[in-house]
Design a protein that fits this description.
With 236 residues, this protein is of the alpha/beta class. It has a single domain, classed as NAD(P)-binding Rossmann-like Domain (Rossmann fold, 3-Layer(aba) Sandwich). It has seven helices and seven strands; from the N terminus they run E-H-E-H-E-H-E-H-E-H-E-H-H-E. It binds NADP nicotinamide-adenine-dinucleotide phosphate.
């Protein structure tokens, strides 16, 4: 049975993605900091007959990526799908952003996915359908006021995902970036209390894109999905 790792699976988009991969019969490795939420999701998964390993980890710590891959492989013996979904937002002008917060945002949003990919590649190479999906953001391409630390971390994620896709293409590993606009989760409500929640993308819509990417058989290469909220401007 194939195994998928989903970071930031305790709530929001990551939880929706984990439940979608459960429907597709993957063994699940779910990662987050909140033990209680991890345990709740594990119970939900096991009630439907699924298999699940919880890993309580802070992705801001240097040791986390290697430990997650080591534990996933020692439990399930293989890795077929890696979804780097966990992320943290930060809102503040450049003049208010200190080095500590900048480092923290970059370590969770860019460094951890980078080193999770690096550590997973040897195992993904052995899979018959290896897929890496990185959850970026519209701010991985654009700039919004007061989001410089968050935007630069997502630009870094965009940049390394593009290179990774080329570097592992010959190994048959498919690498995709999904860049959403506002998604209806705690993060959007905290970061953008000004926007109308009616038009926000639902977490399940991101999970459906993940389903498409892990199940598709076509020859063509899909690098990037950009999905924006309803009131976002077309081609903006
Ligand atoms: N919501 C939006 O509008 C939006 C738009 C574009 C892109 N995104 C991206 O989508 C992804 C999912 O975000 P979301 O909207 O679902 O946010 P969310 O509801 O706030 O969920 C964030 C997830 O990341 C985990 N996480 C955060 N910091 C972590 C850390 N240091 N170590 C381990 N896990 C950590 C959280 O788990 P714990 O708290 O349990 O650790 C939680 O499961 C993020 O990469 C985000 O940047 C979101």
């Amino acid at each position: 049975m194939q195994t998928a790792i989903v970071t930031g699976a305790t709530k929001g988009t990551g939880k929706a993605i984990a439940l979608k991969l459960l429907e597709l019969h993957y063994n699940l490795v779910i990662v987050g900091r909140t033990a209680q939420l991890l345990d709740q999701l594990k119970s939900e998964i096991e009630e439907t007959g699924g298999r699940c390993l919880t890993i309580e980890a802070d992705l801001g710590l240097k040791k986390a990526p290697d430990e997650i891959i080591r534990d996933a492989v020692s439990h399930f013996g293989q890795i077929d799908v890696l979804v780097n979904n966990a992320g943290m937002s930060y809102s503040g002008a450049i003049t208010e952003t200190d080095m500590e917060i900048w480092n923290r945002v970059h370590s969770v949003n860019a460094r951890a996915p980078f080193f999770l990919c690096k550590a997973a590649i040897p195992y993904l190479k052995k899979s018959f359908n290896p897929v890496i999906i990185n959850i970026g953001s519209v701010v991985g391409f654009k700039g919004y006021t007061h989001q410089s630390a968050y935007a630069s971390s997502k630009h870094a994620l965009t940049g390394f995902t593009k290179v990774l896709a080329k570097e592992v293409q010959e190994d048959g590993i498919k690498v995709h970036l999904i860049s959403p606009g506002g998604v209806d989760t705690d993060m959007a409500r905290e970061m953008r209390p000004d926007i109308d929640t009616e038009g926000l993308i639902q977490p399940d819509e991101i999970a459906e894109i993940v389903e498409f990417l892990v199940t598709r058989k076509g020859r063509g290469t899909i690098d990037h999905f950009y999905i924006r909220r309803q009131s976002g401007l077309a081609f903006d």
